[in-house]
Amino acid sequence: MLLRDMTEADLDAVLRIEREVHAHPWTLGNFSDALRSGYQCKVAELEGEMRGYAVMMLAVDEAELLDIAIDATQQRQGMGRKLLESLLSLARHGNMRRMVLEVRASNQAAIALYRASGFEQIGLRRDYYPAVNGREDALLMGKVL
Ligand SMILES: CC(C)(COP(=O)(O)OP(=O)(O)OC[C@H]1O[C@@H](n2cnc3c(N)ncnc32)[C@H](O)[C@@H]1OP(=O)(O)O)[C@@H](O)C(=O)NCCC(=O)NCCS
């Protein structure tokens, strides 16, 4: 799996995946803002094709994972774990002290991936996300690097 910087030219393909895997997807504007803000926006490729992507913000000594996704047809093949490992290594090289993220309480796949990669729950934000029926809690998770 190859990791490279995301560019504006990737955003059609990124949005295709994003809309497929998230009930409340990021918009084109969200990704453009992330690119313009200098966040770490990475694309994961295999055999020349985009299989996933991630967006991470580095702030002083803390990395925040803002989005990570693997194409719906390519999940459960180890790519999410590899992509996350690459981001952890990038954050370590940037001298970040820990990585944090927020995840919907119902997102069992992502929570399992984060736990398997050494993240622990460090907080809970009640009714943080809009959901199909009302609101949903966010787990705040973190990992010391
Ligand atoms: C979360 C996500 C990125 C995982 O990517 P993936 O490539 O499918 O994950 P991997 O194959 O690397 O799985 C790594 C581990 O995570 C856990 N895991 C992944 N998917 C899982 C699922 N559907 N159910 C339970 N555990 C799961 C397992 O522990 C797995 O290890 P194993 O396969 O050896 O059991 C992917 O499911 C996805 O894109 N989801 C939609 C977007 C999303 O929710 N992003 C997170 C927002 S916070």
Polypeptide structure, described:
The chain has helices at 11-21, 28-36, 79-93, 108-116, and strands at 2-5, 40-46, 49-59, 62-70, 98-104, 120-131, 134-144. It has a single domain, classed as 3-Layer(aba) Sandwich (Aminopeptidase). The mean pLDDT is 97. It is built from four helices and seven strands. It starts with a strand and ends with a strand. With 145 residues, the protein is an alpha+beta fold. Coenzyme A is lined by residues 21-22, 68-70, 75-81, 103, 107-110, 112-113, 116.
Q: Count the DSSP helices.
A: 4
Judged by helices, strands and strand pairing, the structural class is alpha+beta
CATH superfamily annotation: Gcn5-related N-acetyltransferase (GNAT)
Q: Identify the CATH architecture.
A: 3-Layer(aba) Sandwich
SSE topology sketch:
Blueprint: E1 2-5, H1 11-21, H2 28-36, E2 40-46, E3 49-59, E4 62-70, H3 79-93, E5 98-104, H4 108-116, E6 120-131, E7 134-144
Parallel strand pairs: 4-5
Antiparallel strand pairs: 1-2, 2-3, 3-4, 5-7, 6-7
Coenzyme A (COA) is lined by residues 21-22, 68-70, 75-81, 103, 107-110, 112-113, 116.
Question: What features would you highlight for this structure?
Answer:
145 residues, alpha+beta, Aminopeptidase, 7-stranded mixed β-sheet, 4 helices, 30% helix, globular, binds coenzyme A
Concise synopsis of the structure shown:
The chain is α+β, with helices and mostly antiparallel strands. It has helices at 11-21, 28-36, 79-93, 108-116, and strands spanning 2-5, 40-46, 49-59, 62-70, 98-104, 120-131, 134-144.
